[in-house]
Each structure stands twice: as C-alpha cells, then as structure tokens.
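Journal club prep — side note

Before the paper discussion, L.F. wants everyone to see what a predicted structure for a comparable chain looks like in token form. Sequence:
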Amino acid sequence: MKIGIVVEGSYPYVSGGVSSWVHMLMEQMPMHEFEIISIMPNPKTEADYRYTLPKNVTGVTTLALNQRATRKRRPEALSEAERERIKTWMTFGQVDSSIYPILENQIGTPEQFFSSRLFYQLVTESYQEEGQAGSFIDYFWMWRSMYAPVLDLLQAELPQVDLVHAASTGYAGLIASAMKERQNIPFLLTEHGIYSREREEELLQASWIPAEFRSHWIQFFHHISREAYRKADNVITLFERNGELQRQLGAPVEKLSIIPNGIDVTGLSALGHVPGVDKLRIGAIVRVVPIKDIKTMIYAAKLLQDMLVPFELTIMGPLDEDKQYAAECEMLIRQLELEQSVLMVGKVDIRQHLPEFDVCLLTSISEGQPLAVLEGMAAGVPWIVTDVGACAELVNGRPDEPFGPAGFVVPPVNPRRIAERCVWFHQNREDARRLGRNGQQRVETYYRTDQFIDAYLHLYEERRAVYGGHRV
C-alpha cells in the first residue's frame, strides 16, 4: 500500500515533535510505501532535510504557502448555483469539500480568480452584509490573503496514493480532504494538538492582523478544520482531553478514537541511572522555540541559585529553529549569571544524557502528547511538567491505572512553582526514584512502539479494504 503523509511545518524539515512521530511511523512499517506531502511557509530543498529518509519513502512533495501555483488553466463559466456555493463556502456558511473540484479546475488560476468579477462581488457583498465600516481595500486584501494559500494548495500537483493520512487539520487537512475527493481514497486524520485552537491563540496575539479582522481569520481556521473532521474516515488524537475538544469543535463522535504515542521502552529502560550526590541534575529535552517557554525554566534556575540549591540544568534541543529566540535565551542566561549552571547544548543523543538526570523539565505553554516526556519516563526519570496537552495524564496517569504519579504538574509560566518542585527533588532523593519507577511502569504498559504501530496498521488495512482492497 502507498500511503500519503501530509504534514504542515514539520517533516522532514523540522526535527522533534510531529516529525519524530512521522519518522517512527514510516520506519516501523517497511511493508508499506510512503509519499510525503510537506506544507512549509517558504520553499525548501533536500539540503534542508533534518532526517535521512527511510528507504520506503518514495517521494517528497513540498508545497510552500507563499509560492504561487504554476499550472495554467482557463476559467470556465460557472452556474449561478456554483457561484453561490463558492460564496457560501468562503463565508464559512457550511463545510462542503465537494466544492474542491470547482476551486481546482473551474475558476482558473488564483490570480485570475482574484482579478475576476466574481471575487470582487463576493467580497463586496460580504463587506455589506457584515456591516463593515472600515477600509474596503484592507478588507479585500484580507480575503485575498486568506484564500491565496488555499487555492494554490488545491491546484498543486499531488502524488497518487492508496490512502492519505494527515498529521493535523488546517492546510494539511485541506490537502488530505482534496486528495480523498480527487482520488477516492481513505483519509485518516491524527491531531497531536488541536490545530484550530492553537491558531486562534496565535491570532489573538498577532500584531500583523488588524483587530477588526482577527475574528475572520479565526473563523477561517475553524472552518477548514471542521471540514477535515467531516471528510476524514477516522479522527484520531493521542489523549482523552483532545478527543473531547475535537468533539466540541465539530468532529463526529462516531469517527473519534485515541491512539497514544509509542516509544522504544526496552532500549530506554535499560539505560539505568547514575545517582548524583553533589548537586541536582536537571534535564530538558526540548526544541528551543517560544511555545516551549525556555525562558520560564531559566528564571526557575535563577530562583534555585538564589535559594543556594546546587544544580545543573542541561537544555537539549536544536538551536536553529528560531535563532532569535535561542539567542534571547542565551542572553538571559548571561544576564542572570547562570553560565556555570545552565547549559544549552543543542541537539544531542539523549540516551547518553538521560542516565545522568535526577529530574526533567517541560515548561511548554502548549503541547500534544510529548515524546520527550515518554522517553524520559521510560528511562526512569521523573518529571516536572506544565498542565498543557497530555502532560498531566502522562505524569499522573488515568483514573483507572494502578500506577502512582511520575512527578509534578504545575501551571504554565510559573518559575517559582517549578523551582519549589526542584527543591523537593533535591531534598527527597529516594521518593524521587519511586516516582521515576512509577513512570517507567506506566510507559511499559501503555506507550510501547508495537502498540502504536499495530493500531495504525489495523486502521490502514481496515480502511483500504473498505475502499476496494490493496494495490498490487
């Protein structure tokens, strides 16, 4: 079977997180072929890859959101009903993925559409119906900016596959929905975080969007996410909290299921632990980007220093995904005079470091089900995590589990609470090791690679059979 994996802003150009999940999925399924459809903000080449592609990857199609479609096509005459369907869809009136063939083949190129009388009338009518009083030119360009990536993506050349699997809603879900419509194939959707909610949080803080237009952009991302939910044959998430959010945002209940992440428990649990005696050794396995809130853990380190707690914090993760933010973190370390105790070591082999740590930190302001936490737990390391995504479920467990807590859960952006919990780990070494064993047992029971892969293999086979069997 040839499977299309659709990702946005990740594999193979960004390491960690969803990219690690995609890479592991493909490596563990040598019996299938994979085509990658990677949506990125800007054009990329093979020189930008962060991964060596598995041998069963047959191709990578990279679609840049700021790169215009190149296929030439002539606009076709549209019926009044078709024109009304375009307006209804673009004004978020209803989800309707059967409109994709019209947008792909009948409206001409994006530039032709945006220069057409139809688009001008659509924007004018919407402006009037909404009772807008601001600049019509700004309103017009908001519409154009919103739908230019959509039309470019829908009109892109896409590979032929037997099943398409999107790793998010948003633009990836849009492409996967179009591929299902175009090729009559199954569509599986896995959400790690809730895409439309994450975009909403970003848009509410974005300075580049005039305040009066933010609600349009938020509605837009919720609109295309609802469409992906409706079009997908299966809507999967990694933990219960996100499943409930998906249901609230329009995902049909009968399509929902949970498949947790899986990791190499055997290899990680065999690493062992080298006990520290002179100082508290703290690890952070994390991408150095704002959403991971590295600055909060640095401020927590300063509090530990002020408390005269001997410690060393090692921050492990790529420093080049957001170079400005990484530079800000390094400057903060210098300003707080933490150079001797806080180390930013870049991307390293975490298996060489995990045995050294007494506790690990995750201070993210948004998460899905972080593989880093699972990896640390498998190695017997307890955690201090923020209460985002599945972090609390991983550390505290579900109500029906026999295992105890594997660390502590704290509110986001709270350096003092983090520092206080670190002090506890310094003062309670034996209890800390017990928390580490709890986490290790939880991962060994519920989060193994074989469980994760078997669940997806079953879904792939089941869905492909429904759509007419396997490719020969």
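L.F.'s comment for the group: The two ends are 8 Å apart (CA to CA). Keep this in mind when we get to the figures.
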